[in-house]
Amino acid sequence: MKKFIILVSLLIINLFSFGQSYYKATMTEMYTYNRNSEEWELYQKNSDTKITVVIEDKFISFQAKTPSMYRIFEGTKEPIKTKSLTGYRYQAKDLKEEKLVKIDVVVSEETKLVIVSIINFDEGYNFRFYLTEIID
User: Fold this and answer.
1) Which strand (E) or helix (H) includes residue 62?
2) What is the pLDDT of residues 37-65, one digit of tens each?
3) Taking phi first (over 0 means left), then psi (-120 to 50 degrees means alpha), and beta for anything else, what does residue 128 get?
């Protein structure tokens, strides 16, 4: 539990600190938005990944087969508190696709995992990265 609290604290603090922190995402999910039912539906799940997530002052990058990088806009931090999630939402820009997205950094009350979601409401997708460890 102590390691979990340290992970959550470091993740959220590092979004606005100077320097870099490295994490490992061991599971990913992709959801698509069904406009008819107005719900997110699981499209793909990968429970055996080893994606390095780098969190910097104003950037988050994912070192996967197709690397991606997002610039977080200052002053866009919004709290998220639901029955099952606690954290923050940020506005950001996908630097590869040149599109605006939302980035959620939350903790699941049920699983105690840190989840980073990249959400594009216009195109109807949500990529979720489940972070489980800090890389030194």
Assistant:
1) strand 59-63
2) 999 999 999 998 989 999 887 999 999 88
3) beta
